[in-house]
Write a structure and sequence with these properties.
mainly alpha; MetI-like fold; MetI-like_sf; transmembrane helix; transmembrane; membrane
Length: about 280
Amino acid sequence: MNARSFKLAQKTVLTVVMLILSIISVMPFFWMLSASFKPTADVFEFPIRWIPKTFIFDNYVTVWFARFQTYFMNSVKVSVVSVVGEVITSALAGYAFAKIKFKGREPAFVIYIATLMFPHQMLLVPRFVLYRLMGLYNSLWALMLPGIFSAFGTFLFRQFFTTIPDELVEAAKLDGCNHFKTFTRIILPLSMPVVSTLVIFSFVGSWNNYENALVFLSNKDKFTIPLGLLQFQTEEQTNYGAIMAASVLSLLPIFVIFLSLQKYFIEGIATAGLKG
């Protein structure tokens, strides 16, 4: 076997292995989707019937009108505000660290990024006390505010902006643009890959944020999807078809966001670390 044939065989084997692993990874999600259209009696039948004998939509109706729509809309509000806020603050901070020369820029960036080493759980108690004093406890703002500022997002934008030639910024200055105009008219339009990357990461993190919701929320009308799923499971108990339907609805926005922005996602990840 020559080198070319060996490489082709190696690539084929790797492709087959990756395909098998992908199918194994997707199977639980496909089972969950299938079970959401079944009556409870058919959910655990064996061997598994991947395609239901009859599709029923009662599970989704039960879920949507059992307070789940409140949980869903609360999560939408929290996620949208967190994502928009994080993209804006991270983009502005990343531009400052990448394109504006000021004294202490590099040490400030290192210190800012070093905050990523502190575990999230370490801040829960101080935030709880602070939010109680500010009157934000048991409000959606207690979930929105921490998500608006992100050292990780700043790092992504800063690394991406360093790949944009400084000559573009200098040319904008010669045309009379200040930093804000340069950022909004020249730099930001070129940044769709990293914006999409951060939107995906931020949305998934905010949508699935269980710890903050558990600590800062006590009123059921304020619950987001993670707490709502737990509450719904407690209420429905053995109605597994409805529980699967609730799980599908909770994952649907994540799939929509990812599929909408996936063409920019890999490009954003690849270019974020090209230049330090």
